[in-house]
Amino acid sequence: MSSLVLAQGAGAVGSPPGQTAEVGIAVEAFGVGEVVRAGEWAGVRLALTDFGDRPRAVAVRLHLPDPDGDTAFLQRIVTLNPGLRQGVWLYGLFPWRTDRTLAFTVTVHEFDTNATGDSEQTGVGRQLAADRVAPQNVLPPTRPVIGVLGRSPAGGLVAYELPSPSDATLAATAHELVRVALDLAPAAMPDRWMGLAPFESLAWFSGDPGALSEPQADAIREWVMRGGHLIVSLPAAGQTWTNPRTNPLHAMLPSVDAVRREGVNLDLHAPLLQPRGGAPLPDNATVHVLRPVEDAQPGEATVLLATPQGDPVVVRRIHGAGMVTLIGYDLSDPRLGARVDPQYFWHRITGKRFEPLSRDEMRALDQAGRADFRFFDATRMDIDIGAVIAKEGRAGAGVLLGLAVFVLYLLIAGPGGYAILKAKGLVRHAWLAFAASILVFAITAWSGATLLRPTKPETQHLTYFDHVFGQPEQRARTWVSALLPEYGDARISLGSVEDRRAWTQALGAWSDTTSITGKPFPDTRGYVVPARDPSSFVVPSRSTVKQLRGEWLGRAEVGVPRPISGPLSVRDEQGGTRLRGVVMHTMAAPLEEVTIIVVRGQKPLRGDLGPLGAAPLFGRVAAARLTDVWNPNTPLDFEQIPPSAWDPAERYFERLTEQISGSTTGFGAAARTGVGGDIPTRLEAISWHSALRPPQFTSQSGVAKRMLQRYDSHLLDLSAWLTQPCVIIVGQLRDAPSPVPVLIDDEPVPSRGRTVVRWIYPLPSEPPTIDGAPLSPSTNP
After folding, report:
1. CB of 32 closer than 8 Å to CB of 43
2. Cα(373)–Cα(697) distance, rounded to whole angstroms?
3. Residue of 67, 178, 409, 774 with fewest CB within 10 Å of its CB?
4. Which residues neighbour 43 within 8 Å (Cβ) at sequence distance 6 or greater?
5. Are 682 and 382 contacting, i.e. CB atoms less than 8 angstroms apart?
6. What are phi and psi of 484, to 5 degrees?
7. Could you report the per-residue pLDDT of 209-268, keeping only the tens digit for each?
8. Between vectors from CA 329 to CA 324 and to CA 330, what angle results, nearest 5°?
């Protein structure tokens, strides 16, 4: 924990000369668990101590520079009491250049609660204190994070944190280096979901959920609905998770009856926990059998794993676009947690695909000549975001007009005009003709500029839109270039008023890391962003474009696919997969690049993983690609897809990996980073990052191994869905309105761009067999 305190009487940074700090400022946490990722949302928890003699309201501000050179004041209003330490969370989308050397200003101001006005600046008075704060640790944009409430070995999850390529002789066996953040505590959880944005999963091994406040529980709930994965391991003794009166997260858990069994010999569970063998498992453990209740609705209790005796021990519930997985083993017990095979057990829960080798194992393989951990080359998958949302059409027309006018002017006012005058014997009027040409072309240029100048706000977008069938809310991440045609100020809002009342929408200034940014505007200004509800705020407007990234959750009537002839079903037939059902969509444009993914469950539990470097998928997955676009109001009958059209998952993801691995030849931003394929293919691959073929570290060719990495698309990976039965349709709408409303000055504005639609239909449980032997029917409710 860092501690930057302004003591009473100390001069405040930025305070007028001779003014002393009236409020002490301390940093309790810069990021949850001191985890901050550059270019991502993060929370900063401050502790304020008022040295005054009476309670008063104050405005706390974290000054965050935005890409235009302006300063976003992340502001929260709190009431301080004399001498009492008050904790305050502030949230913002941090710049790409965030690192340990970049300090941010914090100020505290008087606030008049009786002031009236619509501006966020209303009521803010004189400055009471100021300080500069900096993060303790900053992760690069390419590192996903798994948060752990518990200590090492964290149920074996610590093996996910691979050795870093900073070592000259070693590199990762995965595309990205996972950061496992240990020792998180319930009391340290944020009170808004944005604080959890860096985490793709939260694994809860220890700590009483009853210690969560209501805002903290709401933050976790909303983070899950936005695609987060909460994993809960039931402790052997004293567990309160199944008590609805003391657990504020109880309603999120799978609908199961947790039956406690003591004295269990876990050697009998080895096919789940360590099928390749290892240190003996506990022979006197406590296990909770998780039996789905009889009235569980679809998606409320999907059995992922069951014991050889047919008892469900890993069960999942869908919650919005995310999931909650309940584990009946006490993985906080070091006798068990340190002996769980992470590749066999955890990959079947997280959907990841890589070999979690230790540094010693990698060195041994390297020395034995079985692996080559040199020549790794990072490739950015989400490099196209800036290009897709760039508003260049009108600017390009203006440049062409200016060039044409200039060329004509040179011809007519110069040699061409003189030649015409000479031919007609009017050379004596050359100066008059020259002045007239100046006037005509000036009027032409001015009129053309006026006609081309935009007069109404509009947006260009790239949006990932997710809908899980049966869930009332959808989630979306959108990148927007908003054209603000006026000079002055403009209010930008994400989502309708109803959306903003129901959920905490998040909007922040964004920039493309691949663009070459110029100097800031000469009239840079500050603007206030509500730190706990950054869904609507006023920004400086200069008749130019403001780029933003938005995180939306709500209900949108956009015509996503839906079954029109009863529930979907799937079965294996001779020659391939057969999916039954008919679906139809009514979206604003045809769906292009449509891929259908069918997950039958997981492959049987066996001890053989194949050769070194194979890193198999554990899902029983098949994929089919439509050869044509899918038009609105057109039924799609799955039975019309022949069994031969279904590719095994390995072949589909292999082909996708090859297409985007690319080369360093060619032109443009994609070539500079070695990414291959076209824009639709790269946008599709983002949905399956963890399922793509990992770097081929066993290759001895000396050719660079591609590490496919993400900067700005974390938490968009659907690979965890490949561990449970479901149908997934991924397609793209091109040159279509955004499904997420963006308002400027409280009015909806026209929008065009590309939407990646992901539709997920959960299927009934089908837990994997043990080496092909059928399980007890009790595991398939």
Report:
1. yes
2. 6
3. 774
4. 29, 31, 32, 89, 90, 91, 190, 192, 194, 195
5. yes
6. -110, 100
7. 999 999 999 999 999 999 999 999 999 988 899 999 999 999 999 999 999 999 999 999
8. 100
